[in-house]
Amino acid sequence: MGNKVKLFDVDIDDLTKSGALGIVDAALNKKDKMFIATLNPEIVMYANSNPGYLRAIQAADLKVADGIGLVVGARILGLPLKERIPGIELMEEMLKMASAKKLRVFLYGAKPAVLAKLVEVLNEKYPGIQVVGDRDGYHGNGRQAADHVIESKPDMTFVALGFPKQEQWIYDHLPEFPDGVYMGVGGSFDVLSGTIKRAPLFWRKLNLEWLYRLLRQPSRFKRFLVIPQFLLKVLKSRK
């Protein structure tokens, strides 16, 4: 995968979005099995204090810096990452790839209404893809979802259960899954379905998407406190 940047106990691939997509494309062409983790400071901090989850994250074949805090933290340590790779943008590019190649896609997670709307949106926006299975994150259990994936034999599986559940679920079942790409995508189903609005491009260009989300959803305040905690930990770790 090339160069990696280590933040505490987590190795992050130092890639551009186009570079990451090239790796995904190669894995699909070779019919390999690939686990992608999209990381942010909250995930890194949680993994740092939860050995089981850290094992799951480190098992990912591709670990990309979704959160701008990771890019800033790496820069502070003198180990700059090439760029931030938002998980939702990586997913969108993968869906374009799936449409062009007429690949099989499986969707797992989110509320039933959100998932149903997402399937409609994807069929309309990416006509070449085959949505071969979908399960919401509120009915059934992880074992049933895993069996559904095994039966469906998708080329791409997107899991929107939120961390740490989505990465742990992929890790736990990966050995029995068919070849393909498996990726945790957090709240991307809500955005791509149109249920939640993503930050306007202006905010994204300024790397302030996190602030836009906080202003729109003040209830997330406690979760965002991890960003300054993470950066403080980075500063203290400098030699």
UniProtKB/TrEMBL annotation:
GO terms for biological process: cell wall organization; teichoic acid biosynthetic process. The keyword Glycosyltransferase applies. Pathway: Cell wall biogenesis; teichoic acid biosynthesis. Its EC number is 2.4.1.187. Keywords: Cell wall biogenesis/degradation, Glycosyltransferase, Teichoic acid biosynthesis, Transferase. GO terms for molecular function: N-acetylglucosaminyldiphosphoundecaprenol N-acetyl-beta-D-mannosaminyltransferase activity. InterPro entries: TagA_TarA, WecG_TagA_CpsF. It comes from the Bacteria. The keyword Electron transport does not apply. It holds the Pfam family Glyco_tran_WecG. It catalyses: UDP-N-acetyl-alpha-D-mannosamine + N-acetyl-alpha-D-glucosaminyl-di-trans,octa-cis-undecaprenyl diphosphate = N-acetyl-beta-D-mannosaminyl-(1->4)-N-acetyl-alpha-D-glucosaminyl di-trans,octa-cis-undecaprenyl diphosphate + UDP + H(+). Belongs to the glycosyltransferase 26 family. TagA/TarA subfamily. Catalyzes the conversion of GlcNAc-PP-undecaprenol into ManNAc-GlcNAc-PP-undecaprenol, the first committed lipid intermediate in the de novo synthesis of teichoic acid. This is N-acetylglucosaminyldiphosphoundecaprenol N-acetyl-beta-D-mannosaminyltransferase.
